[in-house]
Write a structure and sequence with these properties.
The chain is an all-alpha fold. 61% of the residues lie in helices and 0% in strands. The longest helix is centred in the last third of the chain and has 31 residues.
Length: 165
């Protein structure tokens, strides 16, 4: 099971070149709200966080007019991939009712789909990265997952977890 969790963490890290986002935890309330304060729909916090990180990356890159089209293409592709990945998630409740071999088959199929999404994200990122200057590449490297100024992982024992060595 550890390798599945490791694959999940790696796919999240690589698929979202701007931030590693964990799904917001459910509060257990009937309303479907998350502990983000009253009136904040589930998932809205994560979506807002990604938008803020993308805006920060865009600002820090200081793109030229010629690079703007490449940025728009890359960011649209990453958003499209994230949406497709979100839609392909297996339904947890349905998975609970399946026999173990079928659950494993579904998990394997889902991991294959995640691999495809990662490859698409890699292709889009390589294309965009090639248009950046060396200074911009340094900023991009620093602000994307596992970079020097990337968001610090606070949950699930990530590399910057307070308990990590």
């Amino acid at each position: 099971m550890k390798s599945y969790r490791k694959a999940l963490v790696m796919s999240l890290a690589l698929l979202s070149p701007v931030a590693v986002i964990a799904e917001p935890a459910q509060t257990g309330t009937e309303s479907g709200m998350v502990g983000q304060g009253p009136g904040v729909p589930r998932g809205e916090h994560g979506k807002r966080f990604i938008e803020e990180r993308m805006a920060e990356l865009h600002k820090e890159l200081k793109l030229t007019a010629a690079q703007e089209a490449d940025w728009n293409t890359w960011s649209a592709k990453i958003k499209e991939i994230r949406e497709a990945k979100k839609q392909s998630r297996p339904d947890r409740e349905a998975m609970k009712n399946l026999p173990a071999p079928e659950r494993l088959e579904k998990m394997i199929a889902h991991n294959k789909a995640k691999q495809t999404y990662l490859e698409e994200a890699l292709g889009a990122t390589k294309t965009f990265y090639a248009t950046l200057t060396p200074e911009q590449r340094k900023v991009f490297d620093d602000l994307t997952p596992f970079g020097e100024r990337a968001p610090k992982w606070k949950h699930h024992g990530g590399p910057r977890h307070s308990g990590a060595k």
